[in-house]
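Bumping my old thread because nobody answered last time. Still need a sequence for this structure:
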């Protein structure tokens, strides 16, 4: 009897063992159906040749049937997935189903056809000869291996086709179809790519490229931090490095943090690689996503550009991975599996002896630190291309200036330069970190605040849709007029992007204004359209949230105004200052990228905050040095690793009890195993103390050894059967 170890697509935390029936050809990397409890569930074969079941063979169940004719996941990705499951303490089946998101609802087929250039037919014998003759009769037409198998009554056809493929007799192709008869439509195009004018690289770019290219040639793992000011030509370096890797027969994965950034970067990569670029992100429709996945799998692309999950692109020979704006917290997935795409990219590079480039003008404190201590090689680009100046940044102290303001939240110091910009026919960006209209609905008489019933978080009034919404759950209710407690009329205050849009439209009735936030970017191709409109100067003022803060390159933008940032500064998280610093430096960097100089106005009530004062004069490294010394004192990353546990329950007492039990289990694991150097914080109410009707009790463990942290977390969890506890390794925020 043979056994297989299987990652079942469920929350089970281990691989399961199943018996392999004689009549099934079970291959590593294929999906199969297995009994789990009373149901049949999909799983991935991780190992098809276990001699020993390792458990009581009487209790072992058998694989029910095979879904795929060929592996849908390569050995490399299996290895990556197993590492990911281990490192992030995620169920392996959930990891593999996330890797295979494009394929979840479809069956794959393996199509084969003879190669015209094959000359060894006379030497074939047995089943190989049988299959060869079958294909020969079809005169070069494709055949499904399952058809071939049943017509020829062959066993183990997968092995036969593999051997014939190795001998050069046939070619195979991975094929799949979306179930409903809808044909996969192609990902929308951002329009014909312009002809590339030849760009002579700057001295800094040349230096960066030569280092990266030699690392690609060396075929060894090499991580780089490309730390280049906004507009220093980093993207240009990425493209050239990718060209070099592709020339060596390598594949390239390019990650960007935001779907909204894909049209522009796609366009730039398409100029270099034409149709050999695939795009991959969650905004694609099912059919499109499958289309792009197949393009990658079937060697139709050399480069994939996409968001977080593109790090799982099914390339076989990845030689270069690029993570743009590597600091961005959207690389961290907030549901299982809770991986960080950037860190997975580094690991995948390591597995492949490949080069990985982390790039940003504002790297994460972790990556900056890694570069300083020599774990990554630091490459600095300190100047903008062609000596273009950095934009001039003014910090507007709203405590002093608001009286002069035209509206409480718009100062003259912001409005005046914006008027100049618009008069000159140039474009402006206004940044506001919150969507909606009023972020605060309260009673002036009794102090009551309108909060979400499920989340204990203030509701935000949305003028579009005329409702009050919770930004943490789906709650949307009619706006209240009177205080539910004292019947006084409620006041609406606080600002969001909608209010700014309304006020700005009144100020500039003849200007073309576009708001970009999660509410306006719902539609499928919206972001392509907005990208085109800005590029073709059909928009004068762009108002938006962090979606528009980074990455973009629009030469005609010469003014950036930051209307709201203070609420980010006040978040009770150890990275709050870092986030503010990154957001502001990034959004400032959207101006003055063309021939004209840029101006930036940042409004704040906290001009002396660390995250703000260093932005003004581009004292980027000073900021990191100061931040790092605080982190060191406080024992926070990058000087320690962190694992956060969130115990959830509808009942506060129960959540608290789980927290206490967890704490005891953690302490016990530390004591019994004599582990030192671990700091445990909590249990205590998480800053977001209730979300989706569940109270949240948080425990943080910190320590220098990630292995120890991982071990403790696993040990402690064993004692918590049945409780709702989320484990977050390397949390992006501890709220
Ligand atoms: P970053 O990614 O560092 O923000 P980009 O690569 O977007 O910078 O470059 C900023 C702008 O300068 C882009 O419009 C780009 O096309 C242009 N650019 C980059 N490198 C050169 C170069 N060597 N010569 C001329 N223009 C360049
Ligand atoms: Zn809510």
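Sorry it took so long. Here it is:
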């Amino acid at each position: 009897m043979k056994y297989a170890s299987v990652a079942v697509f469920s929350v089970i935390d281990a691989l399961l063992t199943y018996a392999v029936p004689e009549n099934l050809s079970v291959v590593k990397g294929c999906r199969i159906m297995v009994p789990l409890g009373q149901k049949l569930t999909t799983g991935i074969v991780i190992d098809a040749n276990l001699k020993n079941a390792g458990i009581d063979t009487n209790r072992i169940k058998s694989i029910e049937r095979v879904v795929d004719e060929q592996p849908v996941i390569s050995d490399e990705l299996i290895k990556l997935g197993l590492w990911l499951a281990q490192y992030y303490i995620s169920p392996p089946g959930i990891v593999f189903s996330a890797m295979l998101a494009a394929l979840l609802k479809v069956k794959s087929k393996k199509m084969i056809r003879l190669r015209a250039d094959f000359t060894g037919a006379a030497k074939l014998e047995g089943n190989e000869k049988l299959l060869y003759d079958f294909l020969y009769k079809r005169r070069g037409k494709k055949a499904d291996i399952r058809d071939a198998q049943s017509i020829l009554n062959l066993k183990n056809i997968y092995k036969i086709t593999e051997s014939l493929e190795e001998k050069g007799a046939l070619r195979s192709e991975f094929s799949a179809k979306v179930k409903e008869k809808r044909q996969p439509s192609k990902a929308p195009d951002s329009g014909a790519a312009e002809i590339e004018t030849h760009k002579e690289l700057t001295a800094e770019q040349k230096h960066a490229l030569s280092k990266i290219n030699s690392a690609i040639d060396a075929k060894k793992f090499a991580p780089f931090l490309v730390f280049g000011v906004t507009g220093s030509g980093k993207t240009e370096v990425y493209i050239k490095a990718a060209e070099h890797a592709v020339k060596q027969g390598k594949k390239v994965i390019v990650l960007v943090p935001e779907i909204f950034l894909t049209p522009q970067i796609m366009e730039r990569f398409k100029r270099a690689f034409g149709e050999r670029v695939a795009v991959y992100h969650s905004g694609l429709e099912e059919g499109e996503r499958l289309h792009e996945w197949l393009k990658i799998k079937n060697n139709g692309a050399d480069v994939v550009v996409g968001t977080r999950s593109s790090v799982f692109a099914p390339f076989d020979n990845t030689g270069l991975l690029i993570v743009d704006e590597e600091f961005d917290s959207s690389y961290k997935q907030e549901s299982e599996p809770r991986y960080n795409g950037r860190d997975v990219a580094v690991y995948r590079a390591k597995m492949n002896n490949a080069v990985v480039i982390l790039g940003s003008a504002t790297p994460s404190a972790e990556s900056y630190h890694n570069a300083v201590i020599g774990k990554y090689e630091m490459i600095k680009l300190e100047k903008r291309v062609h000596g273009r100046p950095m934009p001039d940044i003014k910090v507007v102290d709203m405590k002093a200036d608001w009286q002069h303001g035209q509206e409480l939240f718009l100062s003259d110091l912001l409005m005046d330069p914006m008027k100049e910009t618009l008069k000159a026919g140039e474009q402006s960006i206004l940044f506001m970190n919150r969507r909606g209209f009023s972020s605060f609905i309260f009673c002036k008489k009794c102090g009551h605040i309108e909060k979400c019933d499920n989340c204990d978080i203030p509701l935000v009034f949305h003028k579009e849709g005329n409702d009050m919404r919770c930004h943490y759950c789906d709650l949307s209710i009619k706006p209240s007029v009177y205080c539910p407690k004292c019947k006084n009329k409620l006041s609406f205050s606080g600002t969001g992007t909608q209010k700014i849009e309304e006020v700005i439209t009144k100020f500039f009735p003849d200007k073309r204004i576009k708001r970009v936030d999660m509410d306006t970017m719902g539609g499928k191709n919206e972001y392509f359209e907005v990208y085109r409109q800005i590029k073709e100067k059909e928009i004068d003022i762009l108002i938006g949230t962090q979606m528009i803060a980074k990455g973009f390159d629009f030469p005609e933008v010469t003014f950036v105004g930051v209307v709201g940032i203070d609420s980010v500064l006040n978040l009770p998280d150890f990275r709050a200052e870092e986030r503010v610093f990154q957001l502001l430096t990034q959004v400032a960097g959207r101006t003055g990228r063309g021939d004209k100089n840029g101006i930036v106005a940042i409004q704040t009530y906290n001009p002396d905050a660390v995250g703000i004062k260093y932005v003004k004069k581009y004292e980027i490294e000073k900021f990191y040095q100061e931040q790092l010394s605080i982190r060191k004192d406080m024992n926070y990353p990058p000087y320690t690793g962190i694992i956060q546990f969130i115990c959830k329950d509808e009942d506060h007492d129960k959540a608290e009890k789980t927290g206490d039990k967890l704490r005891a289990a953690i302490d016990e694991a530390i004591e019994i195993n004599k582990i030192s150097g671990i700091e445990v914080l909590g249990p205590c109410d998480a800053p977001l103390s209730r979300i989706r009707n569940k109270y949240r009790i948080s425990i943080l463990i910190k320590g220098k050894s990630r292995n120890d942290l991982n071990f403790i977390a696993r040990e402690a969890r064993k004692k918590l059967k049945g409780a709702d506890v989320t484990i977050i390794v390397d949390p992006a925020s501890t709220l």
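Confidence is low (pLDDT under 50) at residues 181-187. Let me know if any region looks off to you.
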